[in-house]
Amino acid sequence: MAGRLTRRTKVTRYAADGSATIREDALAVEEPLEIRVNGTSLSVTMRSPGDDFDLVAGFLVSEGVIWSADQLVSMRFCAGTDDDGLQTFNVIDAELSADTPPPDVSLERHVLTSSSCGICGTASIDAVHKAAHFGHLDDDSTWSHELLGLLPDRLREGQKVFDRTGGVHAAGLFDTSGNLVCLREDVGRHNAVDKVVGWALREGRLPLGGTTLQVSGRTSFELVQKAHMAGIPVLAAVSAPSSLAAEHAGSAGMTLLGFSRGGAFNAYTGTHRIS
User: Fold this and answer.
1) pTM, 2 dp
2) Residue 120 appears among annotated catalytic residues
3) Which of 78, 117, 120, 182 is catalytic?
């Protein structure tokens, strides 16, 4: 694993009575990662170091660049050093197969795939549908409501970095028996999802039929987009979805759950998968 996930720092802790003590605290490390494809810079994201190859692979799936492991020939860390001349492991170059078209690096593409761009409505959903290799998700797997209600706690049990820092998001992939197949943590919730999707691509598991992706935090349009691009039929979150997230989940044939806590949840779309 490149880089440390946590870093110790001194903090001053103020109690309710005004008393102050100095102690050490663990912070989640956040560093930039430049993603290059065939030697050309494509994107820079702020992430937690670790599982970086999964992150890059998942990002390329989310961008609609690749959808199969054989399209990704290799990935390698390249030039990138700190003030002491040490490798930072903050630049990765991905080589695509000869028959895989390189990604479109135009401004329009970056706008459509950015969660902070402010685009909303039919245009952005249509753009994802056109790029989604696995199309409308007709996966017929079913899940008991009891099992779906257990997934947030099972995800929480695996959040080791969160236990130390309280400062990272998590995404966990579960099968229909409720087994945790893959869990990733990151300071960015979109990165955590990309790391799960990238792991699945590299393992040759796409599309991810018969799975539920349980995430911490809320569900944005971007997270639904990423799950759709990976062929994940069920996306559940401990907090609320946005209106566009629910709209896109419905049009993609996905089951979208929110406020998944204490064994209960809201189902916004795709209730036919809940038994």
Assistant:
1) 0.89
2) no
3) 117
